[in-house]
Design goal:
elongated, 7 helices, single chain, Arc Repressor Mutant, subunit A, 2 domains, mainly alpha
């Protein structure tokens, strides 16, 4: 398993959620514009057929459900990954991985905050990723059912 990709799952889901929020806002604005009866009188434009408004509302409902699913997946992943990071025995590794993958800080910023050189943080980051991978592999080995 690529540990960086695994740990970046929190950020990926957060980006998906923000994109869904933007889509919801656009769709709500389109519905308001399409369903405004005064628009025809003011602008002289054509009135949007009711079935088109209904289709927009149906799409909004589907998008809201998808957004709720992403939010739930985001919180599940965030809680799981934070818990896994916190199980590491080395406090510096915990701090570094939390800052990098939960707070999404770059290594230079982390180095400044931890009062370490950027080179030392890169080295510690590699060690932390390996420790995390070893810990998770050990946990998955213990969870496998014994074969007779």
């Amino acid at each position: 398993m690529d540990m960086r990709v695994y740990l970046q799952e929190i950020h990926r889901l957060e980006v998906c959620f923000r994109e869904r929020q933007d889509q919801l806002a656009e769709l709500k604005a389109a519905i308001l514009k399409a369903s405004n009866p005064a628009r025809e009188r003011v602008s002289g434009g054509k009135q949007v057929p009711d079935d088109q408004v209904v289709n927009l509302v149906d799409h909004l409902i589907r998008l809201q459900r998808e957004t709720e699913r992403i939010i739930a997946e985001y919180w599940d992943a965030k809680c799981r990954i934070i818990g896994e990071i916190q199980r590491l025995p080395n406090v510096r590794q915990v701090e570094l991985l939390y800052k990098r993958y939960v707070e999404t800080k770059d290594l230079r910023t982390i180095a400044d905050e931890m009062c370490l050189s950027e080179e030392r943080v890169r080295h510690l980051h590699g060690e932390a990723l390996r420790a995390m991978e070893k810990m998770l592999e050990g946990a998955s080995e213990r969870e496998k059912p014994e074969q007779a």
